[in-house]
Amino acid sequence: MARGNDVRPIIKLKSTAGTGYTYVTRKNRRNDPDRLVLKKYDPRIRRHVDFREER
């Protein structure tokens, strides 16, 4: 199986709190064609905030 697949690209999730903290994950383009927004933990401000997909 090839890992460099276009259906599940590697994306970066960047904190909306302005700390510059990022998570790296994969997403399924068929199920989520637009940009992801997930609530995740930002250790720099010690709280959960929205993380948006950046390209």
Automatic annotation (TrEMBL):
The terms under GO molecular function for this entry are: structural constituent of ribosome
Q: Give the superkingdom in one word.
A: Bacteria
Q: Which GO terms describe its biological process?
A: translation
InterPro entries cross-referenced by the UniProt entry: Ribosomal_bL33, Ribosomal_bL33_CS, Ribosomal_bL33_sf, Ribosomal_zn-bd
**What keywords are assigned to this protein?**
Ribonucleoprotein, Ribosomal protein
A Gene Ontology cellular-component term: cytosolic large ribosomal subunit
Q: Which Pfam families match?
A: Ribosomal_L33
The residues forming the signal peptide are: none
Give the family this protein belongs to, as stated in its UniProt record: Belongs to the bacterial ribosomal protein bL33 family.
Cross-referenced HAMAP family:
Ribosomal_bL33
Can you say what this protein is called?
Large ribosomal subunit protein bL33
What is the organism of origin for this protein? Answer: Modestobacter caceresii
The gene designation is: rpmG
